[in-house]
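Backbone geometry:

***
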Amino acid sequence: MADDNRKSTERQRSAGVARSGSPANHGPTNSIKLHLGSDPDKQIIVIKVGTSSLVRAEQQTLNLGIIARLCETVKTLRSQGHHVIIVSSGAVGVGCQRLGLATKPGELAKKQALAAVGQLHLMRYYEDFMAALNLRCAQVLLTLDNLANRAQYLNARNTFTELLAYGVVPIVNENDTVAVQELRFGDNDTLSAQVATLVQADWLFLMTDVDCLYTANPKDDPAAQPIYEVHDMGALRADTSTRGTQWGTGGMATKLTAGRIATAAGCTMVICSSTNPEVVARVLGGEQRLGTKFFPVAHALRGRYRWILSVPVRGQLWLDAGAVKAVSSKVKRASLFAAGITKVEGRFNPQDAVSLCDEAGVEFARGLVNFSADEVRELRRMAKEKKQAVDKALGFNVQEEVVHRSFLSLLVGQAGDADETEDDPEHAPVAAPGAEAGAAADALARAAAQLAVSFGWQGCRVCAGGHDDAR
């Protein structure tokens, strides 16, 4: 338990958490644009291009034409005063090409070695094309671990801000050579959404081998209809069966995940065809039906709520209808308690991020948990079987806050209360759950101690008992 407490403290420190007090006044909503001194009409744009778009599968060669046209599009956007960031896949694919491999290996170590080979050559191509257009670029390699730590998250954002201030085009990829499996983004759709969230981007363009999102897979169903606008991710009904190619890792499902992250952070996302990079400027110019446009939620996440979207998800908590309604209330959002949890999936520790899912398994929020997966399962059991005994023994009602509302970020239908309108807190600490949460934690500890005595448990992480093996 000591190790978990230490990890919890480190995570809270990295999040800029103060154990007491209230949130201080924060700066403007888009502190990056303020630093850049940008005209409000000038946009921060993230463009993601995937491996399947950069590599010619038949010839197993790099598609230099796509890279050239993408760089020309960046030149057009820069001439209009916009700030552009490219999230580029392709390192492993280029590595395979350079080493003459016909297929991408499955072993992580081999893919990491190929990424080391390919990233060098991929950046050389970007540098050559950018230089020909009198543009300057920089390489930025990230891992989930960088963004999960609040201090590193803010440092990464500062680096992006200064690069944009210098007029440089950052070219981002996952740092495959050092990322361990459990700390990998896994696909650059998610990475691009995280980068868009990090830099407070106005637009995220996912350039892929399809022109938009469809109601069904158009390759299998000739009646499939294109979807040009999505205003509510929760109400979206579309086919996500398309998978990534052997060269890419994404698919339509990962793009919708990216959409939930980006739109929750206030970013407009567009899925469009990579065969025509010029479509980006046309969309910004107001042209319609050039892809699928995902509109941001009404009340975008800010401050630590935005950062929580960048913390690696370690598990899922499925909630009953009452708990879903309580934690997503537009009037007064509640914390999540064990009684409302119907299923626990994954292995996570205190202060890890988990997905909160409704009864159908659809993710609608993310939060930092106060307990490990085993502890949450035990708290569920206690809530259902022993709560009356606990309340009677202690003389008051015990409530176990599995996820406190201060560390819970809704992905759809954002509530409009004060917590949701918090600005970025880089110049001020963020308040943790206050005395109410502390009292609940103390109550839980006392309840657990008495239960340990009552039921003869020994060594449990919840209550210093040992019923894990016996339950």
